[in-house]
Amino acid sequence: MRPTLKCLSIAVAAMAASPGLAQEQVAEAIGTGMGMVIGLTIAIVVGAIVGWLASLIVKGSGSGLLTDILFGIGGSILASFLFPAIGLTFGGSPIAAILSPLLGAIILLLVIKLVRR
């Protein structure tokens, strides 16, 4: 069962059990489900942009939408572990929010390019 449907089914069960608290629980369940959907959508969009930029820098052209999304998300995961481990910080600006995953995606693409040879 999808997380959103699971949250809604829990909310419906809570409404049947106790009508007084049910409205708060329904609002919380719907908010949780929408928060996950919005967070996933933002991760996909930012991953696509970062992956596309990294592909342009490394290869000279994009790698396709799905591949760019995977490179972007993988690069941001790599950057979130690698850069703090070596003591590299970019600050909290919006430019840093794109620069860090972009460098992670470039590193990921270069490693994949070396392994394929």
From TrEMBL:
Localization per Swiss-Prot or TrEMBL: Cell membrane
Signal peptide stretch: 1-22
Keywords assigned by UniProt, alphabetized: Cell membrane, Membrane, Signal, Transmembrane, Transmembrane helix
Transmembrane segments: 32-57, 69-89, 95-115
Keyword Cell membrane: yes
GO cellular component: plasma membrane
Main localization of the protein described in the UniProt heading: membrane
Keyword Transmembrane: yes
Membrane topology: Multi-pass membrane protein
Family membership: Belongs to the UPF0410 family.
Protein name: Transglycosylase associated protein
Origin species: Ruegeria arenilitoris
